[in-house]
Amino acid sequence: MLGTGMVGRTIADKLLDLGHEVCLGARSQDNSGAQEWADLAGPSARSGSFAQAGAFGEMVFNCTVGSASVEALKSVGQELLSGKILIDVANPLVRVGDATALTVCNTDSLGEQIQQEFPSSLVVKALNTMNCQIMVEPSLVPGTHNVFICGDNVEAKKKVVELLRAFGWPESDIIDLGGIVASRGTEMYLPLWVLLRPTIGTAHYNLRIVS
Amino acid sequence: MLGTGMVGRTIADKLLDLGHEVCLGARSQDNSGAQEWADLAGPSARSGSFAQAGAFGEMVFNCTVGSASVEALKSVGQELLSGKILIDVANPLVRVGDATALTVCNTDSLGEQIQQEFPSSLVVKALNTMNCQIMVEPSLVPGTHNVFICGDNVEAKKKVVELLRAFGWPESDIIDLGGIVASRGTEMYLPLWVLLRPTIGTAHYNLRIVS
Fold first, then answer.
1. What are the residue ranges in chain B where pLDDT is below 70?
2. B203 — contact with chain A (CB < 8 Å)?
3. What's the rounded mean pLDDT across residues A10-35?
4. What pLDDT score does A88 carry?
5. What's the gap in Å between the CA of A160 and the closest CA on chain B?
6. A205 in reach of chain B (CB within 8 A)
7. CA count, 13 A, side-chain hemisphere, A4
8. B141 touches chain A (CB under 8 A)
9. A191-207 as b/e, with b when 16 or more CB fall inside 10 Å?
10. Alpha helix (H) ranges present in B77-177?
């Protein structure tokens, strides 16, 4: 797990609950928050640098701040990430005045940038369109609602679908949007997602595609 | 009605059904498609240039191609649009390679550009997140689903809500996102909307915010 914020810890906790071993990676090896998390989370949990976490994982989650994700992944390095599924949950969000904007969008996306920077990794964009608690416990939002995935490698996406099912997502609620280029669509949804927050009055909301 | 494409005609037809008079405006006054529409649509329908349609309407819909909307509105001119509610349904979509992109986004939007260009008009962004048939007949998609509005003038938004209710939208399904700056959110949703089309297999889909 790369990233020690709310998103990274929430997914890391869920992975532990599911019986996986997790290394929570921070910019520096001696990040006290990450160490404390590992101490409290039990024997299957550990902490380390981004590179140590990247080396540890069979599957790597990018939950770093979107605007710094490529740098964070570079500090892991191509070699350690090669051949691995890299689930990109980050959004390249930035505040511009009172509004939410993206550092990359429209004709490019963070998902694509990561895939381009690490061509031997199997990048799957997923889970980036909702609050992190819903990512790992979709039943917090009642009824049917959707999670999007995209990526260039079909087998990698199958593995991610398996993981999402373990997180509690019914397979019929998982929408595969195609190649990693579709990251543009899910990342560009974020400004609307942010705008909806005060209107809905809770962070526990999601979208459902109805037809 | 500015714009003689599918969206403009569909909304124009609905306005006629509701008992309004409509002038369908085209780039040129003698647009044969617009004339034919008016001839077939009965005595409450007429066609004309953008300027004639802008002069005719108490309320003006922008359903022109998004990338050409500001130019189309300039050909109507500030004076004819002053003090009027201007409902902007357009999206600044453009194809870039195989992907859908926007000609303006992220730190600006078409809705904002129009409001800035026509400061004495009351711009309300609405209906731009779905197929045009659903705009005027929301029951084509079963159950609850949402339409977004935004704009800087509260009274103008109230009038638009009234109109949307006449179109068939339950008031509880109309989400007011705030000022016209929120156009960024609804316009930037479009790439995801376009990506969903082949996955869903029909144009009759929409999103529902669930919480």
1. none
2. no
3. 97
4. 98
5. 18
6. yes
7. 23
8. yes
9. bbbbbbeeeeeeebbbb
10. 78-81, 110-117, 132-136, 154-167
